[in-house]
Design goal:
The complex is a heterodimer of chains A (202) and B (151). Chain A contains ten helices and no strands. Chain A is mostly helical and 202 residues long. Chain B folds into two domains: 39 residues, no CATH class; 106 residues, Sandwich (Immunoglobulin-like). Classes of the chains: A mainly alpha (202), B alpha+beta (151).
């Protein structure tokens, strides 16, 4: 098990409050006139949006642009978010739709880029006492990469989006709504099976 | 598998992706700045890609059609590849527009559309591209910009 230290700020339960709830509080405060609350919301949700958008295989510069478009759409169209509690789902759904459209326009899923990420792994193993965690990451990454694109995308989106809008996700992945749950289960099952042989029961 | 075990695996996946594909260092600060600047000035209206049928169609022969809109103004870009590997952008805008600017990094070119809103950029190299336009809505001038897209 890898310690969740690097992503502590992404852990939906790290201070006992789910991220979507914290997002709702910031957004509500911003609407009530606290302009700095928007900075907190951007800080909280930008990493989530980054991973959601990158799950669609967009090259990094385009991904940054999609994240920015998402924020500007929120600032300019915030009255469309009727209930502050929906702001987290609104942001991730908007980012996914934008990423999906941009990805389609460029006519490809950038698998080459996923290969490129590979080189970032060894650096984590440089310190001796991190070697075990590094091996663990390597095995997990190898397993993730052997999943089909749809599973990789679904797992990454679900991992970072603590309250995915299943209807929108289903539409984006061109799947019936009712099949997201089973597909998620199937993808997790495949991932576990891939992790088994090398490391025994986890 | 229990929900708890699923949650644990998702936590490992988060660590993995956080480690191998980290959020660019300055992204959060840039987003804060973008949002702050935007709410102060509303410097330009944001055009977003319109979804199918005309939103983004990559046809045969490497032709690409992109439509952007902000609900008031729409711009249609039809991109074809030329023999030398460059691109020709045939555009059409539905609002009276004084100037259309196509930028690729520091490389900027501009043109004025015809009375029917048509314009052409020829010999455009590949790369990340953005189109801005200055539209006349009533007696007000508005600057609109597309997000970046790749040629």
């Amino acid at each position: 098990m890898i310690d969740g230290v690097p992503d502590a700020d992404l852990d939906p339960t790290d201070d006992g409050t789910a991220r979507w709830q914290r997002a709702a509080v910031f957004f509500g405060a911003w609407r009530d006139g606290d302009s700095r609350a928007m900075d907190d919301l951007v800080r909280l949700m930008t990493p989530v949006l980054w991973h959601v958008v990158r799950a669609y295989g967009l090259e990094r510069t385009l991904a940054e642009d999609v994240v920015q478009t998402t924020w500007l759409q929120l600032v300019r169209g915030h009255e469309r978010v009727a209930d502050p509690r929906a702001v987290s789902a609104w942001l991730t759904t908007t980012a996914r739709r934008e990423a999906w459209k941009v990805g389609k326009a460029h006519g490809r899923v950038d698998t080459a880029d996923a290969e490129g990420l590979d080189v970032l792994l060894p650096a984590q193993t440089s310190a001796e006492d991190h070697a075990a965690a590094g091996d663990e990451s390597r095995r997990l990454w190898d397993a993730v990469r052997s999943l089909d694109q749809r599973c990789q995308r679904l797992l990454r989106v679900v991992a970072f989006d603590d309250r995915p809008d299943y209807a929108a996700l289903a539409a984006d992945l061109e799947m019936p709504i009712g099949s997201i749950g089973p597909t998620r289960k199937r993808c997790l099952g495949k991932l576990r099976a891939l992790l088994e042989p090398a490391g025994g029961a986890s | 598998m229990t929900d708890h075990e699923d949650a644990e695996l998702f936590a490992r996946l988060r660590s993995l992706w956080t480690g191998i594909d980290p959020v660019p260092a300055s992204l959060i600060d840039r987003m804060i700045a973008a949002v702050a600047t935007d709410s102060l000035t509303e410097e330009y209206a944001l055009l977003t890609l319109v979804d199918q049928p005309l939103g983004a169609v990559r046809g045969e022969a490497d032709a690409l059609t992109l439509q952007f809109s902000d609900g008031t103004t729409s711009i249609l870009l039809h991109v074809t590849s030329t023999a030398d590997g460059r691109h020709r952008v045939d555009g059409w805008v539905d609002t009276a527009t004084a100037q259309i600017v196509l930028s690729q990094g520091d490389d900027i070119r501009s043109t004025t559309p015809s009375e029917t809103g048509r314009f052409v950029f020829d010999e455009v190299p590949s790369g990340l591209t953005r189109v801005r336009l200055t539209a006349q809505v009533g007696d007000e001038e508005r600057t609109l910009s597309t997000p970046q897209f790749e040629l």
